[in-house]
Structure prediction request, 719 residues.
Amino acid sequence: MGIDRKAFVRPERRYGIYPIIHGAVAGDLSRAERLERLGFAGIVGNVPYGRTFPDDAKEWRDTAEGFKDYIRRGMPVWIYDEKGYPSGTAGGAVTDAHPDTIAEGLFCYEYWRTLSGPMYYRADTPGDKLFRAMLLPLAGGEALDVTASANERGTLLMDIPAGEYHLFLMSSRRLFDGTHAAHSYSEPRNYINLLDRKATEAFVEVTHERYAALLADEFGRGVRAFFTDEPSLIAWNIPRGVYPIVPWQREFPARFQARYGYPIELAVVAVVTKRGPQLVKRRCDFWEFVGDGVAENFFGVLQDWCRAHGVKSSGHMLAEEHLQAHVVNYGSLYKCGKRMDWPGIDQLNSEPPALMNDQIIPIARLLASFADISGEGESFTEFSDHCSRMANKQIGLDWIRASVNWHVAMGITNLTSYYNWDYFAEDDIRALNQYTARLGGMIRQGRRDSRVALLYPEASIWSVYTPSVEPNAMDHSEACRRVNDAFAKTSWELLHRQIDFDYVDEDLINDAEIADGKLAYRDRRYECVVLPAVTVLSCRTVDKLAAMLAAGIGVVVIGDVPAIARETGEDAPFAAKLLPHLASGKLAQVPLQSGWTLPGPARLRALPRPIQLRPRGLSSVLTGATGSGTIVDGEAISPNILSHTRVLPDGSRLVFLCNMGGKAYDGFLQAAGAAAAELADPGDGSFRPAQTSHAGDALVVDIRLRAYDALFVLLSPTP
Prediction:
């Protein structure tokens, strides 16, 4: 079959684990020799630091020589770009030299006393830099700007017009107290504004440029990537706050006005108070503006610099597990993720039950989707047993290996780590690295066979998210939970049924072409798009979905058909364009309810399922197999088995299966369009024939997996 067997039997070390080493790497030959002996792929490291990134030229030269020593051993280097986290200040050097780049927030104050006009009213502002003072009419309608009523001391002296109003003030302020930066494990410090291009450029000058001056000859070879760690807008309260905060930057008013054609303060009123005309549109406009700002002014600057210097930009963001965090921390994770060459996550828990938690988004699959779709194909996880250590628990290598399997199933290709390897025997560590490298070599062959596109419900969460004063500043309203939970549960329903999928946004759907009954984008060929509790869509996207249905491409709607147009924020006749396709079976509508599951064949003919896994004892189900490889039973699932299918150039398929449960698994893999099967064991690099039978035109493969075990199934195509 069309795989590189040598890469499996004798895997390349560079596909193993990259330990993260902060500080000194120069002259530490004993550690370098040990890591080489243990089979580690390379390292993630940085220059030693004191208060800031050092000015001592010798420390920089020694660090560069230390990196080169690893490279000479065949161990590539990723450069960690900060002192501690979050990345962006170079240990405070950027904000010390450029105080105008410190993060800002717009603090919003609503005075709940009803002002009944006409009347004269005097109000003191909180003492910050007043941006706008607005009167919010309780009867509805547009807010009134009364900023001009403020005197030089900031006191408002106003004539209140007829009607009843609340006073709403917006004041800009530096962000620090109570923020993520204040709770850094490194040290409390001011943080940069990710919306300010000047801040990122100053950060690059202090860090990236210094490394380039010493290691440019190794860029793109021994030095693979720059690793940025947990940047965020920090416009949120870790302890309980007093006032809601939205991200801010001094150029916002002019830029927002030029882009959207109305003042930004009207969007802020919509975001914070949930009142005013064009509510949904304005809320979406604001967060779209923020997301684009972070993507271009932080991640975009880093990516452009890295590409110009022959290295990859990589990193991960903060608190990615919930959609609400995406909004407040960076506006849009999807926009930011697309501006990293090798996007990643941190996975701080290696316990299998925690990894299989369907209450949170499987964020590894989301970030790996960016890499798969972009064509780069490379992603990473900073994985560790941090949560176990905090609970005074020591995990075993079986769980670490299970964590490796979980990441591979999600599509992650590189693993960096914070494990304390001193707890384990050297032979066991070498075996784990060889195992990891074996998986890494296999999943880089061919392309992921994702036939389902799951929509990232960006506009839907923007439309309902409201900044909070609660701890961690997450909006846990019913409206937000509905969108987030449906997104997470839909993702896990697909994973539990071994259905490969990519996360997509509206831009991808609209840029893709309809060809041969599929939605084609670069090398992806989607047969179905799933909308998880989506309430807001652009008119263009709905027209594209209707065209897809007419061409025989499936659409699955979780909950109600979207009803609000992104362009106007008003109700739109979307149902009339989509619901007529219910009768054909290409459109499926799944009720949204607590504990919902995807229904069976009559309801989801639109959802392709080229492979199906069935526990032993349910073999009778196999008689319902169809040549199309669609769902034949909605209840017979294997929830602890994750899969990852790749299509090879010769048409054969490579299926990775891993058991995340604590009990052995005994069952069948049913594959449409396969003629023969072979099994590959990543534990020892061996190949063996599979035990097979047939059900109709489907091949049935016997599958046995020990607890936390994995294997590959190689499927040759039918002639």
Observations:
- Residues 600 and 633 are 5 Å apart (CA to CA).
- The chain has four domains: 7-99+184-242+296-446, 104-174, 452-590, 611-717.
